[in-house]
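for ur thesis appendix - Calcium-transporting ATPase 2. copy paste whatever u need, i formatted it the way the template wanted (i think)
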Amino acid sequence: MAMRHDMEPTPLQVKLDGLAKAIAKLASAASFLLLLILTFRLVATFPGSPLSPAEKASKFMDILIVSVTIIVVAVPEGLPLAITLALAFATTQMVKMNNLVRVLKSCEVMGNATTICSDKTGTLTQNKMTVVTGTFGENSFDDKNPGAADNRSSQFAQRLTKEQTRLFIESIAINSTAFEGEGGEFGFVGSKTETALLGFAKTVLGMTSLSQERTNAQVAQMLPFDSSRKCMGAVQKLPNGTYRLLIKGASEILLGYSTSLALPTGMIAMDRGRRNHIATVIEDYASQSLRTIGLVYRDFTQWPPRGTENPDDPSVAADLGLLLSGMTFIGVVGIQDPLRPGVPEAVAKAKHAGVVTRMVTGDNVITAKAIATDCGIYTDGIVMEGPDFRKLSDNEMDVMLPRLQVLARSSPEDKRILVTRLRKLGGIVAVTGDGTNDGPALKAADIGFSMGIAGTEVAKEASAIILMDDNFSSILTALMWGRAVNDAVQKFLQFQITVNITAMTVAFITAIQDPDMRSVLTAVQLLWINLFMDSLAALSLSTDAPTDEILDRPPTPRKASIISLTMWKMIIGQAIFQVIATFVLHFAGPKFLPYPENEMRSMIFNMFVWLQIFNQYNNRRLDNKLNIFVNIHKNYYFIALNVVMVGAQIVIVFYGSTAFSIVRINGNQWAISVVIAILCLPWGCCVRLFPDRWFEIGAKFVGKPFVVVYRPCARFWDRVMAKMSSKKHKSEKDASDGSASEDSTSYKGRGKSSVETVHVSGDAEKGL
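the 3d part is after this line
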């Protein structure tokens, strides 16, 4: 059941839904107001008018077309295309960078991630494990530190007795699920921890053949890995008829189950001094970022021991937990797993971007803390173990979580709880996982990353993105592309809303002012600007690759507006420039330019289109930085699409006179159109230099009357639509119930049940 989760709308979807509703309301209001004003003006001319009824109807249709065009212009038809293209482009590029996106929306959600809960092994580290240190009784070796040249593993092996060597080899070879193969560093295939131990047994202890060792041993039972006790076991029948339980696992846990210590001369009791000495060795290994694996055993006269039988199969033991007592401690090894190159840098970049990285691992707390320190994850926060984490109440957990940096000795359920609580605190959480048991945590997270190399099929199916190289640095790539997707949508909105405001204002005012009630931009021209130009702009603004600058800002909060203050400043600033330019050319142009009306209208249309072409460059940035041409030479899509737009506009001006109600214009008129339009670029610099704080104060002052009027009208409209929707659903339900009742009655007395009746009646089935 933990793997079943409903698909929640993303923060971007929620924000766009609210924006779309607001635009629809405003466009409908503007369209209705324009229709009302122009209709009254038309009706006022009817008395004494020489127009025939057909001509009057034609006039009204022209008014209706202009009013409807207002709605068409206001609705951002290119927005779904912009989102789809941004996601498609991002996912295509992410595959090349080892991120296989399975759930499309996860890409844009990752852009606002606030927390990454990462596994250690294979994600932060290379998963190339080797045994570099070890302590067995009174003997030890150190292949890691340069100062221990006289205490290498080769010298250690010479000090071992034949019985000790045989015990070590059996503890490693029999109690293992790895097997020999052609691949692998040591020719073994399986868990990297087990292959590291088998490599040690082969190269240092002299094990000849793994398959031969297992063939010679009489294995009575294999006890699989127990995630709660962090160990696994195997039972070997000895030549004398007794049974030996061999256990390997977390060294500090197995030390707690041990009551004796294996030495060359035999077993001795595990007193406090020896226990403290071994615990100190384990801590020393762990502090060097080594994974510590302990080996213990216990002999039994019969198998399974009395009282531990499995009810379903009395020939085997039921539970590993019933056997873990009175163990003999053989020794402990330290396994090195180097950090992946670039991980500390990636963690630092994520931190710079406002994203907290937390390590969630099953390793010893000291090992986890040491590696987290090397990665840059652990600074001055909290390090906690899974058992302690599980004891916390929800309130205690919520207080502790903001400072938690490392969760050690954790189980998959601990990871799921951690993800769930972080999300309830308002975070957007990404989590990594590779095992079958990680499925619930991957599903519970906003973005689940599975491992493409080491991950199980269950983990991959539960995840949203697959890291094909199992590398933490690839998560940073996903973060950057996720932000690029959000930026692409915002860039398009910044561009589209500027066009919408300008076109609506120009069409509304010029239609009211014109004696013939015609807009300076015809319906066909507005549709060209809105449909074709905006669609190509959606394409061009959706293909900018992320730069390192994208990590210089924190994640956007869930409740933050999709249109920021800086974006509104650019939208309003450019809309003012475009409206003024259009009005000056339309109202004042005939006074200082000796051109006929049809040529002036053609110039205005041409200028308006070029304004949108040049304004795309302004909208390549969402901040107040002035360099709008950054990396433009790398974006071949943007360049190519701009060439297409320019070419299409030239063709229309020269050959689209009939369809677009324009005439050809000469070189001077072309120059006037383009020069006025290109002025929007330096104007954009002026807008960016204008302080956001000043704009905010002005916007609050000017926009307050609008908000006062809009909010109650919007609430009234929502209530009306809700009532209409409720009545519609009620009528549909009544019709459905009536249809089912009627069909049931018509079959009454024919020996059919009501269930059978529904299956027989097609009408009832449709109604239900």
